[in-house]
Write a structure and sequence with these properties.
The chain is α+β, with helices and mostly antiparallel strands. It contains six helices and eleven strands. The chain has two domains: 144 residues, no CATH class; 49 residues. Strands 6, 7, 8, 9, 10 and 11 form a six-stranded antiparallel β-sheet that branches. Strands 3-5-4 form a three-stranded mixed β-sheet. The protein is globular. The N and C termini lie far apart (86 Å).
Protein backbone atom coordinates (compact mmCIF):
# COMPACT_ATOMS: atom_id res chain seq x y z
CA UNK A 1 0.00 0.00 0.00
CA UNK A 2 1.35 3.40 -0.96
CA UNK A 3 1.53 6.08 1.71
CA UNK A 4 1.52 9.78 1.01
CA UNK A 5 4.97 11.02 2.05
CA UNK A 6 3.43 14.11 3.61
CA UNK A 7 1.28 12.08 5.99
CA UNK A 8 3.95 9.88 7.58
CA UNK A 9 7.08 10.17 9.66
CA UNK A 10 9.75 7.55 9.07
CA UNK A 11 11.26 6.30 12.31
CA UNK A 12 13.90 3.58 12.10
CA UNK A 13 12.49 0.69 10.11
CA UNK A 14 8.85 1.44 10.72
CA UNK A 15 6.47 3.99 9.36
CA UNK A 16 4.41 6.09 11.75
CA UNK A 17 1.23 7.61 10.39
CA UNK A 18 0.69 11.27 11.20
CA UNK A 19 -2.71 12.86 11.66
CA UNK A 20 -4.17 15.38 9.23
CA UNK A 21 -2.52 18.75 9.03
CA UNK A 22 -4.22 21.72 10.63
CA UNK A 23 -4.20 24.95 8.71
CA UNK A 24 -2.83 27.96 10.61
CA UNK A 25 -6.25 29.54 11.30
CA UNK A 26 -7.54 26.22 12.65
CA UNK A 27 -4.46 25.79 14.85
CA UNK A 28 -4.76 29.34 16.19
CA UNK A 29 -8.42 28.80 16.96
CA UNK A 30 -7.63 25.56 18.80
CA UNK A 31 -4.93 27.19 20.94
CA UNK A 32 -7.09 30.23 21.66
CA UNK A 33 -10.02 28.00 22.54
CA UNK A 34 -7.91 26.07 25.04
CA UNK A 35 -6.71 29.31 26.63
CA UNK A 36 -10.24 30.68 26.88
CA UNK A 37 -11.44 27.43 28.45
CA UNK A 38 -8.63 27.57 31.03
CA UNK A 39 -9.35 31.20 31.93
CA UNK A 40 -13.09 30.57 32.19
CA UNK A 41 -12.35 27.54 34.35
CA UNK A 42 -10.41 29.76 36.76
CA UNK A 43 -13.32 32.15 37.02
CA UNK A 44 -15.90 29.38 37.43
CA UNK A 45 -13.96 28.15 40.45
CA UNK A 46 -14.29 31.58 42.06
CA UNK A 47 -17.87 32.44 41.15
CA UNK A 48 -19.92 32.83 44.31
CA UNK A 49 -16.82 32.82 46.52
CA UNK A 50 -16.11 36.56 46.46
CA UNK A 51 -18.48 39.47 47.20
CA UNK A 52 -21.11 39.70 44.48
CA UNK A 53 -20.48 43.42 43.97
CA UNK A 54 -16.87 42.64 43.02
CA UNK A 55 -17.52 39.87 40.52
CA UNK A 56 -17.69 41.93 37.32
CA UNK A 57 -14.34 43.65 37.89
CA UNK A 58 -12.68 40.59 39.40
CA UNK A 59 -13.70 38.45 36.42
CA UNK A 60 -11.75 40.66 34.02
CA UNK A 61 -8.62 40.44 36.16
CA UNK A 62 -8.87 36.68 36.65
CA UNK A 63 -9.44 36.00 32.96
CA UNK A 64 -6.30 38.00 32.13
CA UNK A 65 -4.20 35.79 34.43
CA UNK A 66 -2.09 33.35 32.43
CA UNK A 67 -2.04 30.46 34.83
CA UNK A 68 -4.18 28.19 36.98
CA UNK A 69 -6.13 29.02 40.12
CA UNK A 70 -6.54 26.07 42.48
CA UNK A 71 -8.79 25.85 45.54
CA UNK A 72 -7.13 23.90 48.33
CA UNK A 73 -8.19 22.40 51.66
CA UNK A 74 -7.78 24.82 54.59
CA UNK A 75 -4.19 25.56 55.57
CA UNK A 76 -3.50 26.91 59.04
CA UNK A 77 -0.29 28.70 58.08
CA UNK A 78 -1.54 30.61 55.03
CA UNK A 79 -4.64 31.64 53.13
CA UNK A 80 -3.08 31.63 49.69
CA UNK A 81 0.16 31.18 47.79
CA UNK A 82 1.67 31.81 44.37
CA UNK A 83 4.11 29.52 42.59
CA UNK A 84 5.85 29.61 39.25
CA UNK A 85 7.81 26.82 37.61
CA UNK A 86 9.30 26.77 34.15
CA UNK A 87 7.62 23.45 33.36
CA UNK A 88 4.23 24.16 34.96
CA UNK A 89 3.84 27.92 34.63
CA UNK A 90 2.03 30.07 37.18
CA UNK A 91 -0.32 28.69 39.81
CA UNK A 92 -2.30 30.43 42.53
CA UNK A 93 -3.54 28.37 45.48
CA UNK A 94 -6.42 29.66 47.63
CA UNK A 95 -7.93 28.07 50.73
CA UNK A 96 -11.43 27.06 49.75
CA UNK A 97 -12.91 27.84 53.19
CA UNK A 98 -12.21 31.59 53.09
CA UNK A 99 -15.19 33.87 53.54
CA UNK A 100 -15.89 36.15 50.52
CA UNK A 101 -14.03 39.26 51.70
CA UNK A 102 -10.97 37.25 52.71
CA UNK A 103 -11.10 35.32 49.43
CA UNK A 104 -11.06 38.52 47.37
CA UNK A 105 -8.22 40.06 49.40
CA UNK A 106 -6.15 36.88 49.14
CA UNK A 107 -6.86 36.51 45.42
CA UNK A 108 -5.65 40.06 44.72
CA UNK A 109 -2.62 39.50 46.95
CA UNK A 110 -1.55 36.47 44.91
CA UNK A 111 -2.39 38.06 41.56
CA UNK A 112 -0.05 40.90 42.52
CA UNK A 113 2.73 38.30 42.89
CA UNK A 114 1.90 37.01 39.41
CA UNK A 115 2.06 40.51 37.97
CA UNK A 116 5.45 41.14 39.56
CA UNK A 117 6.77 37.89 38.07
CA UNK A 118 5.36 38.72 34.63
CA UNK A 119 6.04 42.46 34.45
CA UNK A 120 8.86 43.29 36.86
CA UNK A 121 10.97 40.19 36.37
CA UNK A 122 13.18 38.25 38.74
CA UNK A 123 15.12 39.72 41.63
CA UNK A 124 12.18 41.50 43.28
CA UNK A 125 11.64 40.99 47.00
CA UNK A 126 8.53 38.85 47.72
CA UNK A 127 6.65 41.75 49.32
CA UNK A 128 8.89 44.58 48.22
CA UNK A 129 8.12 47.85 46.50
CA UNK A 130 7.09 46.20 43.23
CA UNK A 131 4.60 43.88 44.91
CA UNK A 132 3.20 46.69 47.06
CA UNK A 133 2.61 48.80 43.95
CA UNK A 134 0.89 45.98 42.05
CA UNK A 135 -1.27 45.00 45.03
CA UNK A 136 -2.23 48.61 45.72
CA UNK A 137 -3.30 49.09 42.10
CA UNK A 138 -5.39 45.92 42.18
CA UNK A 139 -6.99 46.51 45.58
CA UNK A 140 -7.75 50.25 45.57
CA UNK A 141 -10.62 50.14 43.02
CA UNK A 142 -12.45 47.49 45.06
CA UNK A 143 -12.23 49.53 48.27
CA UNK A 144 -14.09 52.30 46.47
CA UNK A 145 -16.89 50.04 45.23
CA UNK A 146 -20.04 49.92 47.38
CA UNK A 147 -21.04 46.65 49.04
CA UNK A 148 -17.73 44.87 48.37
CA UNK A 149 -16.26 45.20 51.87
CA UNK A 150 -17.90 45.87 55.20
CA UNK A 151 -17.11 49.35 56.58
CA UNK A 152 -14.66 48.00 59.16
CA UNK A 153 -12.77 45.91 56.59
CA UNK A 154 -12.71 48.80 54.09
CA UNK A 155 -11.29 51.15 56.74
CA UNK A 156 -8.61 48.63 57.72
CA UNK A 157 -7.61 48.14 54.08
CA UNK A 158 -7.54 51.87 53.44
CA UNK A 159 -5.23 52.45 56.42
CA UNK A 160 -2.61 50.05 55.10
CA UNK A 161 -3.00 50.86 51.41
CA UNK A 162 0.05 53.14 51.28
CA UNK A 163 2.24 50.24 52.44
CA UNK A 164 0.38 46.92 52.26
CA UNK A 165 1.27 44.20 54.73
CA UNK A 166 2.71 40.88 53.64
CA UNK A 167 -0.20 39.01 55.24
CA UNK A 168 -3.43 39.63 57.11
CA UNK A 169 -1.72 38.28 60.20
CA UNK A 170 0.63 41.26 60.07
CA UNK A 171 -2.36 43.63 60.10
CA UNK A 172 -4.30 42.86 63.31
CA UNK A 173 -6.99 45.48 62.67
CA UNK A 174 -7.75 43.91 59.28
CA UNK A 175 -7.76 40.38 60.64
CA UNK A 176 -9.99 41.44 63.52
CA UNK A 177 -12.42 43.09 61.09
CA UNK A 178 -12.52 40.00 58.88
CA UNK A 179 -13.31 37.81 61.89
CA UNK A 180 -15.83 40.17 63.46
CA UNK A 181 -18.69 37.71 62.99
CA UNK A 182 -16.78 34.74 64.38
CA UNK A 183 -17.67 33.47 67.85
CA UNK A 184 -14.40 31.53 68.12
CA UNK A 185 -12.32 32.29 71.23
CA UNK A 186 -9.10 34.19 70.52
CA UNK A 187 -5.84 34.16 72.45
CA UNK A 188 -6.11 37.86 73.24
CA UNK A 189 -9.37 37.18 75.11
CA UNK A 190 -7.77 34.71 77.52
CA UNK A 191 -6.41 35.84 80.89
CA UNK A 192 -2.69 35.60 81.47
CA UNK A 193 -1.77 32.18 82.84
CA UNK A 194 -4.65 30.38 81.11
CA UNK A 195 -4.02 27.13 79.24
CA UNK A 196 -5.26 26.79 75.68
CA UNK A 197 -4.96 24.63 72.58
CA UNK A 198 -4.44 25.88 69.04
CA UNK A 199 -5.82 24.34 65.87
CA UNK A 200 -2.59 22.41 65.31
CA UNK A 201 -3.08 20.56 68.61
CA UNK A 202 -0.29 22.29 70.54
CA UNK A 203 -1.14 23.39 74.09
CA UNK A 204 0.20 26.55 75.71
CA UNK A 205 0.10 28.62 78.85
CA UNK A 206 -0.52 32.25 78.02
CA UNK A 207 2.22 34.65 79.06
CA UNK A 208 2.78 38.40 78.82
CA UNK A 209 2.47 40.35 75.61
CA UNK A 210 5.73 41.28 73.91
CA UNK A 211 5.24 43.92 71.26
CA UNK A 212 2.56 42.39 69.03
CA UNK A 213 2.41 38.76 70.24
CA UNK A 214 2.04 36.82 73.45
CA UNK A 215 4.96 34.85 74.89
CA UNK A 216 3.34 31.46 75.55
CA UNK A 217 4.88 28.35 77.08
CA UNK A 218 4.34 25.10 75.21
CA UNK A 219 3.09 22.36 77.53
CA UNK A 220 5.16 19.40 76.32
CA UNK A 221 8.54 21.02 75.84
CA UNK A 222 8.45 24.12 78.04
CA UNK A 223 9.65 26.21 75.12
CA UNK A 224 8.38 29.74 74.62
CA UNK A 225 6.54 30.63 71.44
CA UNK A 226 5.27 33.98 70.17
CA UNK A 227 1.55 33.45 69.57
CA UNK A 228 -0.58 35.81 67.52
CA UNK A 229 -3.25 37.56 69.64
CA UNK A 230 -5.96 36.71 67.11
CA UNK A 231 -5.10 33.02 66.87
CA UNK A 232 -8.22 30.93 67.46
CA UNK A 233 -7.96 28.85 70.62
CA UNK A 234 -9.80 26.38 72.83
CA UNK A 235 -9.36 26.85 76.56
CA UNK A 236 -8.10 23.78 78.41
CA UNK A 237 -7.23 22.76 81.96
CA UNK A 238 -3.65 22.35 83.14
Amino acid sequence: MDLDARSVWRHGRGVVRRGPRLRLPELSQLILGNLVDAHDRNWRRLTGRIPAAAEADAARIVRAFRGDIVLTPPRASKWGSYRWRSDLGAKIFLNRDLQPEAMLITLLHELAHAQVRAWDGLGCAPHGAEWQKRYRELLAPFIGLPDVFSPSVARALQRQLHKPKASCGAAPDLLRALRADSDQLRVEQLPEGAWFRLGNGMEFRKGPKRRTRFACTEKKTGRTFAVHPLAEAVRTEE
